[in-house]
Amino acid sequence: MTDAFDLPRPSQLWKRLSANRRQLAAAAFWRDENAVVEQAEAIAAIAQRIRFRLKSVQAMPPERKVQQLLALPAVSEAVAARLLVAYHLEHQRPMMGRFLDGLGIAHEDGLIAEEGLSPAPPERLRAAADALGGSFPAGDVSLYFSTLLWQDPETWGGLADLPQVREGSPAAQRS
């Protein structure tokens, strides 16, 4: 089995996204009510970079915070991971839902309903991944699977061996 951590880290995935997808992810990140910790970290990094007070950065309009976040030369793994999650939650729900349906996992519009999910059997994981790969762009599927792997390697570790993870890497998402 491939080690999930042989895959690009969230910060590397973030850097490989197209400018358009980074913009979408950054906007989703600032709207994400569950990203308070990562938003505070991003605000601190922005404030340090532009030499503003934290309160001044917090008070910026969302569009300006998006631009400032995009202008950071690097983001932490935690912020990058949250950016990827926010992007998927806001822009990839149909794909997420289709994958979970393929696995027979209860969800609400792509969000898993139950806690303590156990790993899916390899054959069911492969079938769901194959179906997803036939319905969505390879880069989108690869990014989604890589995000799942980094978010929860115990549950989604079986994805690391699937060709969809490496095919159509996020670098291909230049649209």
Could you please describe the fold and organization of this structure?
By secondary structure, the protein is an all-alpha fold. It has one domain (4-172). Helices cover 64% and strands 2% of the residues. The chain is built from eleven helices and two strands, in the order H-H-H-H-H-H-H-E-E-H-H-H-H. The protein has helices at residues 10-16, 19-31, 36-50, 54-58, 62-71, 77-91, 93-103, 122-135, 138-151, 153-156, 163-166, and strands spanning 107-108, 111-112. A two-stranded antiparallel sheet has the order 1-2. Helix 2 (19-31) packs across helix 6 and helix 6 crosses helix 9 (138-151). It starts with 9 loop residues before the first helix and ends in a 9-residue tail after the last helix.
Order of SSEs: HHHHHHHEEHHHH
Distance between the termini: 32 Å
Tell me the strand percentage band.
Answer: under 5%
**Low-confidence stretches at least 5 residues in length (pLDDT < 50)?**
170-175
Looking at the chains present, what oligomeric state does this protein adopt?
A: single chain
Overall number of structural domains = 1
Using the alpha-carbon principal axes, give the shape. Answer: elongated
Count of helical segments?
11
